């Protein structure tokens, strides 16, 4: 069997969907793509791309490139577009498991909140009598504070009122909060847009995204905003090396490097905040840069 014949046979049996297109016309789609899209491939080959995809978001992605996780007719599809090619992977089961995990963590956070809220005041009234007791008490207070922060991150998120937010106005606050991490780093900021959103939730998103890049990425780092498809995008670009699994970094407890201290909740919280604001969080490799961002409604 010739190599191109073996490749064609492999795509016919693949578990990932593939759609090939040219001049907005479908050239080929494999059986898995036909299954995921719910179409008869014999009827759509040679026809307009939208007829096969049946979703304007997928069509825009196929034509302009990029990668997104989209809910399409009851399925969660990871769609990646390269010139003339659209790859589709069904992540519905992974999404279901993640939702179950989030529900379990929120239940755990609820159960821990009450005892933790009582431990802090009890520790405050204790008076250490020796240097050793003072050291132990300080460690206990720090651990209770850490657990309280963890519980807060895992609790249900309720954004505040939405209002027009000029993104550039958030930069001075971000700069103040990250002053130590920013010292000596090369960070470019371009935030010309205004979003209708909760400013505090958006600030937390930007804080976590930028903090993540400063911890794990490499200079130069860029914090930018743009509009695309009627949505507002805020992204942090860094020149770090390619990562093996971008999606996994949004799971609780996952970190970009075991050498950097942290609880692995920054990007997890970014995704939950973005979803609470009616948007989504994403990450991808773009040329020589890692890109982490959120896509939010403009109105």
Automatic annotation (TrEMBL):
UniProt entry tagged with the keyword Transmembrane: yes
Keywords on record: ATP-binding, Kinase, Membrane, Nucleotide-binding, Phosphoprotein, Transferase, Transmembrane, Transmembrane helix, Two-component regulatory system
GO cellular component: membrane
Reaction catalysed by this enzyme: ATP + protein L-histidine = ADP + protein N-phospho-L-histidine
Primary subcellular site in the record, as a coarse category: membrane
Residues of the PAS domain: 18-53
Keyword Transcription regulation appears in the UniProt entry: no
Biological processes per GO annotation: osmosensory signaling via phosphorelay pathway
Membrane topology of this protein: Multi-pass membrane protein
Gene3D superfamilies the UniProt entry points to: 1.10.287.130, Histidine kinase-like ATPase, C-terminal domain, PAS domain
Domain Histidine kinase: 107-299
Enzyme Commission no: 2.7.13.3
SUPFAM superfamilies: ATPase domain of HSP90 chaperone/DNA topoisomerase II/histidine kinase, Homodimeric domain of signal transducing histidine kinase, PYP-like sensor domain (PAS domain)
The organism's place on the tree of life at top rank: Bacteria
Gene Ontology molecular function: ATP binding; phosphorelay response regulator activity; phosphorelay sensor kinase activity; protein kinase activator activity
Protein name in the entry: histidine kinase
Matches recorded under Pfam families: HATPase_c, HisKA
Localization annotation: Membrane
